[in-house]
Sequence to fold (427 residues):
Amino acid sequence: MSTSNTQARRQELLNQYQQIQAKTLNLDLTRGKPATAQLNLSNAMDGILQGDFKCSDGSDARNYGGGLGIPEARQFAADYLDAKTAQIMVGGNSSLQMMYQYVEGAYLHGVRGADSAWIKEATNGQRIKFLCPAPGYDRHFSICEALGIEMIPVTMDDNGPDMGSIEALLRNDPLIKGIWCVPKYANPNGVVYSADVVERFAKLGTIAGANFRILWDNAYAEHHLVDNPPELANVIALSEKYGTLDNVIVIGSTSKITLAGAGIAFIATSESNIKHFADLLGISTIGPDKVNQLRHIRFLKDLPTLRGLMQQHRAILQPKFELVLKHLNQGLAGKAVNGQTLGSWTVPAGGYFILFDTLPGMADKVVKLCAGAGVKLTPAGSTWPYKKDPQNTNIRLAPSFPSLAEIDEAMQVFVLCVELAALDAQA
Fold:
């Protein structure tokens, strides 16, 4: 594009931008919240117990106790995570809370007693460290920041994290005590870890320092957008094979399956880890909300029933993702400034996000322009530790909550702002 054509196109986009500003839009693509229509799919849970609070072992769900969760919920979670029931703890409504409790407990009180507390190794001004595949989930990173744990970014490709880098770092630094993972439909790039990557994760416990833990946040295990979804290898079975199950903490929940704020969360790990974690949590609670666990199991019943429900979720979500991709393809595909394409984006097979990459150094400018036109996006850098995207390119798009009409309008603004930011840089 010649200089005069570039200037003319920039002025054209500026005029369109000012017209959009006059509309005073208020649109939001910031977080992966389920839409109201998705939450409505689980309305039948309301009143489902009909006064019957008896669990499968004869206990009363309304009373104290049951720190590991009710038996039928533990069996359901075991089926969901492809684990043994004895390896399961079912908690409250938040997997994020369980992850925080586990990491905080390991940091302050140890993974298997006080002598294994991570903080005891942080001597002479040293800090405990976590590996953070990036881009990644911002709330994982916030847990580390809150506890003063140093974060080390690890790059990713279409197979998952760079395992060569991870293995080298672990061999050389015993103060690395954990790694965050979203192994299926990773937040935000939608990557599914390859079978080779998962197997190498299962071996990490053989080369890492003492008390190392893999936080395997399998948040989107059943959240598919395609007919033949990719499979994720079973890290639990592989870890049992290599004798490293103590090093693996697998997390799941129903937060984007039933009710986002009133689901059930669960973890799978070795039986010794489960006992230690239950003992630690027993200091602060006499048991989880077992009534909520019971109503979930009465509603979800089993994996086939859950998967039928997830097809209903897909029917709501898929058109939204397709609309975002339609705008990106129509508005940006094939366009370039000074020979550089205006951006690239993922086409996820599941999960809740589309990751858009701007030209280097442009992400914060695009987010600012969108905000000025009434479209809220997750702040640039949010998907990186310390909110520092080294290339300033990543923008996470979350289309689940807005309506199709709102997505249509928001994406028109987005593609305009991507092109305008690129042309502004050339002005």
The longest strand covers residues 176-181. The two ends are 13 Å apart (CA to CA). The mean pLDDT is 96. The first helix runs from residue 3 to 21.
